What we know:
Rubrerythrin, domain 2
Amino acid sequence: MNHEDDSGNKHSNFRQKLIPKLIPSKESCKIELPSGETADLPLLEGTVGPKSIDGRGFFEKTGLYTFDPGFTSTASCISAITYIDGDLG
């Protein structure tokens, strides 16, 4: 099935199938803020490995930023091209 995008280009739904889905976990992460209040942050299921804290609403919920100078515990995006899935690779 083909459809036109906003610029009038026709393409198949194949591209949409490549965009990975974020899978929410049934669990959340509760953190205690310096003020003593708590904030619940949703968790996301990973493709492989541990769950991730969904930080998209972190600032709005806490008024704080995160700091990861080595970019060692932070995922910047989701990607459909950086994970090779065995037989589907």
